[in-house]
Each structure stands twice: as C-alpha cells, then as structure tokens.
Amino acid sequence: QVQLVESGGGLVQAGGSLRLSCAASGRTFRLYDMNWFRQAPGKEREFVAGIRWSDYSPSYASSVKGRFTISRDNAKNTVYLQMNSLKPEDTAVYYCNARQISNDYWGQGTQVTVSS
Predict the structure, then answer these.
(1) Which residues are registered as beta bridge partners of 98?
(2) Which pLDDT belongs to residue 60?
(3) Residues with Cβ < 8 Å from 5, sequence gap 6 or more?
(4) What is d(CA 102, CA 92) in angstroms, rounded to the nearest whole number?
(5) Number of other residues whose CB lies within 10 A of the CB of residue 6
(6) Which of 65, 66, 92, 106 is nearest to 9 (CA)?
(7) Are the C-beta atoms of 77 and 21 separated by less than 8 Å?
(8) Nearest Cα to 39, choosing from 98, 110, 102, 104?
C-alpha cells in the first residue's frame, strides 16, 4: 500500500512558477513509476509527466514539454513537478500517481490556479 500526499499548489500569475511535491509512504517507493496528472473543470483527467523507477527517464505531455520538469528523490520518498512559464490553461487539480504492474495509487490532488 502506498499513500500519496501532494502539496505546493496555489494561485500564481501567468508566467510564474510553482513546485509541486508528492510525498509517498511505504518502503517500496523506489520501485514505482511516478506520474503527475491534472484535471481541469469539465475536462477529463490527463497525463502531465512521468518518471520511471528503473532509469529515472522522464516523459511529458506535449502541452508542458519544455516548461515542466519532473524529478524524484527516493531517499525522501518524494516526487516533484517544477512548473515554469505557467499559463492560464495549466489551471487544474494536479494529482500524483504511483504505478506498478498491478498497483495504481492516487493522491487527493492539489489545486493550481494561473491567473491571466
């Protein structure tokens, strides 16, 4: 079982930055692929960024590539999402996700609001 707690969301002006954190419980955090998803009002949840457990290789949605950076610190059981050059369309609830072959865990989400 893995429990995830996101933090770092808030209100920021367009062009600004935020850093989201996701703290995970459990001793096997290092074995999970970690992802960030987001869900805007009236829209489906969408993939934002992911980082593999095996080689730390990142992947990004095209809409955030070059602006967002995902990283992880296995010693702290934490995954981060550095968000730069934020746009109003980045406004959403951001969710942390831990994924293995047969396990899938979600955090409660943190609100990010970007004003124009």
Answers:
(1) 34, 105
(2) 98
(3) 22, 23, 24, 107, 108
(4) 27
(5) 22
(6) 92
(7) no
(8) 110
One digit per residue, the tens of pLDDT, for the chain of length 116 reads 899 999 999 999 999 999 999 999 987 888 899 999 999 999 999 999 999 999 999 999 999 999 999 999 999 999 999 999 999 999 999 999 999 988 899 999 999 999 99
Can you read off the two tokens belonging to residue 64?
A: 């955030």
Whether the CB-CB separation of 5 and 108 falls below 8 Å is answered with yes
Tokens of 99: 């994924």
Q: Tell me which amino acid residue 29 is.
A: F
Place of tokens 């968000």: 83
